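Can you give me the bound-state structure? Components:
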Amino acid sequence: MTVDTASPSGRARAEIETIDLELDRAFDRILDAVERVATAAESMAPEMAEGILVAVTEILEAASVRDIAGQRLTAVRDAVDHLSDTIHRPTEGGLERNRDKSAKIEEKHDHGSSSESGLLNGPQLPGAAKTQSEVDALFDKLD
Amino acid sequence: MAVDKNMAVLIVDDYKTMLRIIRNLLRQIGFNNVDEASDGATALQKLRRDNFGLVISDWNMEPMTGLQLLKEVRADEKLRGTPFIMVTAESKTENVIAAKKAGVNNYIVKPFNAATLKSKMTAVLGEF
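Here's the bound-state model for the whole set.
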């Protein structure tokens, strides 16, 4: 990974990439172990396997946070890029490139857009996100 | 009619960890015939080539989103009746409305649990 870590934004990006990579490695190991446990449990007597498989399911449910965490890291990375482009003094010939990049990030966060890109918001912050029950109520109302 | 737990399920997500988690959760509830696609175009290819009883798809993928995949499935004469569940972090009202309008059968918000996955699959497929 070739990243300018001398600047604060470069360092921030490098840290985010490292977090992402290390989390991926850890979760791969977790899932490897869970799959081994699940396979072993399937050859046990049902009464012995039941409790183990309940725990396996709970681990899988908890592990799904990795997906959301990854999306939040992407949001942080985009914010770092946006701030960096906003405050960075454009170099000669770099102005258009910086404008294009900032515009792309702005478009991604354009909540008012009626095009499909306006539907790509990623995970909401706690308190702002709809729960499954709220989504269910809305979904059923649309029948 | 009883649900055939040997039916093929296609899971679509651009994040391999999520594919692995959903595959394992499906295994826990008795569905072992699971195929995967990490993007919409590959999913569409597999759907057109093989028979799937259910699609479980993420939304936020590039270049084809899960919503676009759903619209392609519903526009395809052979595929249009395929049960389709969206599993996504997109939880805004407009997302649910857009997915429903496009013909999604059910909608799960991430993070989710196995009970929710099972109950939404039951709602779409019937008791199993």
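A couple of observations. The first strand of chain B starts at residue 9 and ends at 12. Chain B touches chain A through 36 residues (CB under 8 Å).
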